[in-house]
């Protein structure tokens, strides 16, 4: 279903509905037309909830304004807002994204009892000894022996990985998942990676070459290193 409008366009998709809001209109005008359009046709009582994506374009809304949109959609139809997308972010959000995408290089050995914590990716040139701990909101790359504890994605990012030249950790954590060291010894010939295998929903250790195939976004790490 597609409805032409200068302010609100409603389009049916395979996943539900998309509401595209004109970013050249006032917020109040958008609310008024959205209420009118969603009141035109009802839904059957037995019909399941329909997921809705709201696209704001070049418009920024406060949390209170977003909640108002959600309330209108929920009241007028058997709909539930799954996400609200905007092409604009605040300065604070941009700075947070920049901070979380940066790489922190450290050259040292992390000894027992020491903890190193960074925002973004951690590149450690050195060893993590048993009892030592490294933590990052992003990925962890250890060019050395990882025998202690490593926690990547500690703010909840399950797409992060932990890589080490020699992987024999006391403990690996990725977001909220936890894994002990594998029973077998690693020869340390290839860099190994700890990552969340979505098929089994658990942390698995595999050669970095295999993980790159599963997570091509890791290549952005190389680009950021080259671009400084």
TrEMBL record:
Residues 108-205 form the Septum formation inhibitor MinC C-terminal domain. Residues 8-84 form the Septum site-determining protein MinC N-terminal domain. InterPro entries: CAP/MinC_C, MinC, MinC_C_sf, MinC_N_1, Septum_form_inhib_MinC_C. Transmembrane segments: none annotated. Keywords: Cell cycle, Cell division, Septation. Cell division inhibitor that blocks the formation of polar Z ring septums. Rapidly oscillates between the poles of the cell to destabilize FtsZ filaments that have formed before they mature into polar Z rings. Prevents FtsZ polymerization. Interacts with MinD and FtsZ. PANTHER family: SEPTUM SITE-DETERMINING PROTEIN MINC (PTHR34108). Belongs to the MinC family. This is Probable septum site-determining protein MinC. It comes from Halobacillus campisalis. The gene is minC.
């Amino acid at each position: 279903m597609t409805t032409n409008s200068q302010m609100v366009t409603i389009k049916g998709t395979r996943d539900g509905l998309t509401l595209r809001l004109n970013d050249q209109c006032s917020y109040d005008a958008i609310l008024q037309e959205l209420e009118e359009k969603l009141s035109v046709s009802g839904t059957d009582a037995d019909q399941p909830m329909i997921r809705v994506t709201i696209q704001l374009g070049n418009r920024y809304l406060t949390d209170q304004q977003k909640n108002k949109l959600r309330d209108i959609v929920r009241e007028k139809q058997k709909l539930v807002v799954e996400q609200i997308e905007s092409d604009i972010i605040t300065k604070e959000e941009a700075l947070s994204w920049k901070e979380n995408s940066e790489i922190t290089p450290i050259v040292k050995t992390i000894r027992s009892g020491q903890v190193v914590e960074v925002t973004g990716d951690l590149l450690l040139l050195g060893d993590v000894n048993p009892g030592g701990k490294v933590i990052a909101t992003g990925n962890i790359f250890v060019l050395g022996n990882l025998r202690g504890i490593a926690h990547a994605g500690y703010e909840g990012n399950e797409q992060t990985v932990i890589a080490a030249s020699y992987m024999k950790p006391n403990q690996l954590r990725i977001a909220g998942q936890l894994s002990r060291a594998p029973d077998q010894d690693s020869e340390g010939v290839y860099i190994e990676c700890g990552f969340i295998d979505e098929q089994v929903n658990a942390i698995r250790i595999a050669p970095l070459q295999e993980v790159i195939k599963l997570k091509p976004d890791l290549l952005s790490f190389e680009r950021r290193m080259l671009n400084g």
